[in-house]
Design goal:
46% helix; Rossmann fold; 13 strands; four-stranded parallel β-sheet; 487 residues; alpha/beta; binds iron/sulfur cluster
Length: 487
Amino acid sequence: MSAETSVKTVTEHSPEEIERVKEWINTEEYKEINFAREALVINPAHACQPLGAQMVATAFEGSLPFVHGSQGCASYFRSTFSRHFREPSAATCDAMTEDGAVFGGQANLFEGLENAYSLYKPKMIPVYTTCMPEVIGDDLTAFIKNAKQKGHVPEDLPIPYANTPSFNGTHIHGYDSMLRSILTYLTEGQKIEGKCTGKLNLIPGFDGSTGNIREYKRILDLMEIPYTVLADTSDVFDSPCDGHYKLYPGGTKIEDAAESINGKVTMAMQKYSTVNTMKFIEETYSGEKVVMPMPFGIQKTDEFLMKLSELFGKPIPEQLKAERGRAVDAMTDAHQYLHGKKFAVAGDPDYLLGIVSFLLEMGAIPYHILCSRTTKKFEKEMKALLETSPFGAQGKIYINKDLWHMRSLLVTDPVDGIIGDTHAKWAARDAKIPLFRIGFPIIDRVNMHRTPVIGYGGAVSILSMIANKFLDIKDETCENQWFEMMR
Ligand code: SF4
């Protein structure tokens, strides 16, 4: 850059001052100031509400997600999915700008819906909002009704919608609102008294792992339990590369979602991302309703399988019993590399409960547990989980804190590793500890969404990732006399 075009630094700091501040932000004094912070969030461990809505909206066959709001927000959701899954993430947006903010976004919605329908011929267009239309109070009920009445889209085109203001929730709440809205729309008038599809409706919750969804399906196939996944992201975000672009590569069939109301059992695999959906299901669906913890580790996977066996009268297949035995063997073989090690964990409530449960099984110490937007109910549940094991005694729970708070914790009260998504890499780097990537988004490593972290196989994968990284570090950092062939 030439001297004429170079940017003039607004504030000059001496190298000594920079060094002083660098050291100061690692102190207890700074930590206290950091934790007193109220009006500012720095590097939160969550994403926007509409991003969660988009995950659901994209997971039905022929469904075209539609963002009512700002183009920049829509690009952020699409790019995050594309970076995490390394797949195209189709979605459209009515690109509200200043005039929409002043006069309301109805005109944008009319034009957007008309274009989206005529260009992409979707079977369904789920609509969800960014912050701008929420702030100005756009009335989606009226707008969508008007769009149909004025002929912008056919009367019978399903257009469920969800209000997803990001100033009042995270991606898990957006997921919940959109799923509830789609199921409400598709199941209306479909309930038939006395009819039972005999199927399990499995709701994975907000899960960035297509490997997890495939693992649920594999287990159900092995147990010969018929199922509908509500909603199925596995083929949408992990479609084969066969030289042909498919705009709608998979997802739950609309007919299956519609008849899910007559299912035998509806089972949510996450509690905190399905609160409102399960309320709706409790009130309207036939059959049993169950909310399970995510099956991380041996105990939670056992609970999942035994519940399925009980509800459907199916025995646990020999193949799964053998997988369990191999997982226990792998955990025994590698326990010494995790036992007594301290971990920080950050992420979504349901993932955190699962990961902490797994760490306790391994005799590892979940030490700093941070959730960047959640409730006292979660805190209580996590506390109860920690109390089930002596390895939980040192665990400290931080709710509604961000990853800059986590950084302060890591540098003043160190741990051996941190488990979380890519956002945690700065804190991990400053604290000079490894980051074990589990969660969403993971945008700086490849293919991690393809390997399940749930089930018995998932336990082996997590365990191997952590233990082998610790062994790598040992090899890279030990003195010559301790550089061993065998570890
Ligand atoms: S917080 Fe609101 S305005 Fe910002 S990206 Fe998310 S939805 Fe858009």
